Amino acid sequence: MNNTNIYQDKLDYFESINTGPLKIDLIQIKKAYADQRNDQSLAIKILSIVGAVMAFIAFLIFLYAANLFESKEGLLIGGIVLLTGSLILNKLTDKIFFDSISVCMFLLAFFMLGVSTDQLGLSFSSMALLIAVLAISCIFITRSYILNFAAVLIAVWGIFASMVDRIPEEYLFILIIPLGLLSVFFLLNEAKLLHFSEGMAARYLPLRTAFTLAFIGSLVATAAGSLFFTEITFKIVCSGIFIVLTIVILFNLLKNQDYRSDSFRYLTLAIIAISLSLTSVSPAISGSLLIGLICFQVNYKTGYILALAGFLYCLGQFYYDLSISLLWKSVIMMASGALYLLIYLLNNKKLKNHENI
Question: Which of 3, 106, 167, 177 has its CA 20 to 30 A from that of 153?
């Protein structure tokens, strides 16, 4: 909000409707409004990240052309210097231009550290785990939106990459479960997390966005490939958890709408549960639907759009991978579409009848 006086109108309103005295920390409120990073729109932050990534790629080309990748000690020292410099620069200023520079230095630091540790003889999984631990440590140091966002994505990648050589491929689906639960927790507990500590209040938005994006990205990455010719036990376990959570979220959404009868609610939930159970070999479908519903419930539009795009892709991939004829695929798709269209029409009819009353 550009108008720094607007919070006074809100305070006056809350005082008018409250019967008792309100304890308000005006100093902290003014400090929050004075923070320029809170005024940066999501589009500006995205452009900043894109610019930083482009600068990162350009600098990598320069390092490669100068044959600087051959010195493992130089890469290690350079990575430490760049990482320290990015954190210090981010502490000294909150301008968007310097934010972009700090992100570029941040990404370069992790890349150089990763290459140097690989040249020092560490295995890929050990190097990825070290990168993940370092990224998590940076989250506790900086409060920058962009740096926290990048650090979470790097940490998630590092954890997943460190497990590639350690566990069988089918076990990777189990790793999606804690990531999904963490995303659900951040989406549903905004108020509690914002009041947990001052540091969490400053980091909540980038963490929420990063966990949501990382979870949807992991679902999309696992959506492709054969559905039935690999081990499906862990896929079904993963889907089962997401389906149960989806039904719980839907139940709460339907419970808050009094114009629907109990029989209509339970019938709708039963149809959705059966439909999702038929896609249990693809946890990406139920997972993206779960995140989409929660984002809709908490009015998080960015997450809702990302989840919708992921859901459509995962559903299309599931349709493509089914080992049945194209005719039966079309029949199933048309029948399911007609069924949900009927539910939508019945719901609209009940809503209009309720409004007329």
Answer: 167
